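User: Sequence recovery, please. Input:
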């Protein structure tokens, strides 16, 4: 006789429950509400909106520019703001999400519920994505209004593409941050790794890439730069924005040749596809590693 017959089964615990979109959305909703209450998101939203307004105001009026020239000047200024600030805040907020709950003990409580580990990872990614995207769109909304008053609506398509690429950049670095948060054992370690990734990709990578290319044969410089470009999502966004604005000549002769190569044929689709891989791959790895971890 099987003594286990009739015994109530234990509820499925993290990883053994089947994936459910409803539970994932519940996690996303909770993460979004927690983010809204977070001082990090509020500070970021305020600072980003103020800087975007200052840059757009100076570009369209203070410098006496108008029309397409003023639009390009403002977008170039906003591009620098996007490339430096958005990856940093995405890494800071994402890296502290799972690692912070693990350190605080609330993650263990969550995993005692019948919930799949992938629902937690994807739910946190979705919730943080919605929070950060809302903050970014709010800042871009004020800047866009000022630009529309100065140059009209003739550049609205270019501006929308620029904003969408900025959101893609947020998603890329947020995906990297979630992976870091899964791998790190403590919140401080996750934040440290996140800042290191930001420093390496945003501040150091370009100098290393140009240095490596300068040591290569003349005919191999552009293909090598294209290969190195694919390993830096921030640079891919920069190139796509410059191509959208038609300002590839500002890169200098060598990088202008690179952008001309990318602008032909399927080059831009290659960069967009690579950015999607940068979003999906770290998130998939985060789900895989989180499902295998036991130190909750």
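Assistant: Recovered sequence (296 residues):
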């Amino acid at each position: 006789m099987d003594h286990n017959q009739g015994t109530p089964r234990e509820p499925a615990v993290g990883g053994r429950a089947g994936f459910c979109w409803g539970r994932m959305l519940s996690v996303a909703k909770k993460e979004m509400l927690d983010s809204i209450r977070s001082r990090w998101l509020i500070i970021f939203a305020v600072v980003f909106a103020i800087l975007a307004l200052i840059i757009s105001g100076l570009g369209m009026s203070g410098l006496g520019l108008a029309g397409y020239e003023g639009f390009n000047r403002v977008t170039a200024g906003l591009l620098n703001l996007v490339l430096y600030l958005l990856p940093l805040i995405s890494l800071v907020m994402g890296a502290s999400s799972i690692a912070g709950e693990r350190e605080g003990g609330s993650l263990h409580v969550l995993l005692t519920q019948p919930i799949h580990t992938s629902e937690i990872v994807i739910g946190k990614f979705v919730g943080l994505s919605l929070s950060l995207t809302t903050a970014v769109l709010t800042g871009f909304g004020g800047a866009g209004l000022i630009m529309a008053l100065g140059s009209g609506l003739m550049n609205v398509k270019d501006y929308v593409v620029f904003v969408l690429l900025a959101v893609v950049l947020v998603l890329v670095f947020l995906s990297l941050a979630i992976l870091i948060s899964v791998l790190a054992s403590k919140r401080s370690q996750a934040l440290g790794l996140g800042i290191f990734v930001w420093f390496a990709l945003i501040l150091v990578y370009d100098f290393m890439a140009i240095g490596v290319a300068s040591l290569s044969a003349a005919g191999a410089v552009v293909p090598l730069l294209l290969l190195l470009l694919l390993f830096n999502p921030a640079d891919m966004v920069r190139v796509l924005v410059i191509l959208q604005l038609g300002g590839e000549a500002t890169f200098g002769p060598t990088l202008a040749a690179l952008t001309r190569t990318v602008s032909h044929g399927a080059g831009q689709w290659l960069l967009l596809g690579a950015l999607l891989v940068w979003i999906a791959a770290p998130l998939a790895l985060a789900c895989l590693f989180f499902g295998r971890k036991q130190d909750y």
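The two ends are 37 Å apart (CA to CA).
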